[in-house]
Design goal:
Layout: H1 2-22, H2 24-38, H3 46-63, H4 69-91, E1 104-105, E2 108-109, H5 112-129, E3 133-135, H6 140-156, H7 164-174, E4 179-184, E5 187-192, H8 193-213, H9 233-267
Antiparallel strand pairs: 1-2, 3-4, 4-5
Helix pairs in contact: 1-5, 2-3, 2-5, 4-5, 5-9, 6-7, 6-9, 8-9
């Protein structure tokens, strides 16, 4: 019994360490938010310094090998997706960036896109470190419109009904039989994919509370003093995590299919030397 408990504790520590390594980019962002809030930096506005720090961190991660160029492409896509969402939400008054900055576009500092990119960075890092595999993954023709519908609902619910709960139910139906497997210390584990969505969304909600505490952005009810972000925001982050995960999974699946086709063509008898 004691041996089993000791092994379980070791596995938990290994899993936590791999998760911590996968969160390097988000940790740097939160540390920068705290540092620039507590220690005013000279010459530039706070938002401008945050952009410089994020850019420097991104360059370092690629040059050090922590991220591949393919992963950088995925992260760039998320930066643009997140920035578009931020501009729309700020325009609609959902939240605001009250501080000054030279690198603000339509009221949104450009560093904010890196907060979305950091989620993609975590997914890519964790995917590689934990050797994630998907079991019974739905076909792309079903996954792609679902991800698009979830993302569009962040915009359309301002003009039409909010269908997030219908979309959440649809996610449960589509991924009911899908599992995610991962490796920790040469042992493989698995969990329902829907459960992993909920867990990641919950921890991002915690991170959001930390970010708003350090004035990364502010919701209308936080204009005078900081308050806990409404628990209902977990559903928003859960859906955003689903979009992020689906895009990363789809791109990895396409890459694997291309690699398999390339391998088959190289080993084809037509390509063999006479």
């Amino acid at each position: 019994m004691e041996k089993r408990l000791w092994h379980a504790l070791q596995q938990l520590v290994r899993f936590g360490w791999q998760q911590a390594l996968s969160c390097i980019f988000p940790v740097v962002i939160f540390a920068s938010l705290a540092l620039t809030q507590l220690i005013p930096l000279p010459w530039l506005h706070r938002y401008d310094w945050l952009l410089i720090i994020c850019l420097a961190m991104q360059v370092w991660m690629v040059r050090s090998g922590l991220e591949s160029r393919d992963e950088l492409k995925v992260i760039t896509v998320f930066h643009l997706i997140g920035l578009a969402l931020e501009m729309f939400k700020v325009h609609m008054g959902s939240w605001s960036y009250p501080e000054e900055g030279w690198t603000k576009v339509n009221g949104v500092p450009l560093y904010s896109g890196f907060m979305y990119a950091s989620v993609a960075s975590y997914l890519c890092q964790a995917w590689r470190r934990l050797k994630v595999e998907l079991v019974r993954w739905p076909p792309l023709w079903l996954v792609t419109p679902l991800a698009a519908s979830i993302y569009l609902n962040f915009f359309t619910h301002h003009y039409w009904i909010d269908i997030r709960w219908w979309l959440s139910a649809l996610v449960l139906i589509v991924f009911w039989r899908t599992w995610v497997t991962y490796e920790v210390g040469r042992h493989r584990y698995r969990m329902p994919l829907a459960l992993s969505f909920v867990l990641i969304g919950f921890f991002i909600w915690i991170a959001e509370n930390i970010a708003t505490f350090f004035s990364a952005w502010r919701y209308p009810n936080q204009s005078d003093t900081w308050r806990l972000v409404h628990v209902g925001k977990i559903s928003s982050w859960l859906l955003l995590v689903i979009v992020s995960f689906l895009i990363v999974a789809a791109l990895k699946q396409v890459k694997e299919q291309r690699a398999a086709v390339g391998k088959d063509s190289r080993t084809s008898p037509l390509n063999q030397a006479p």
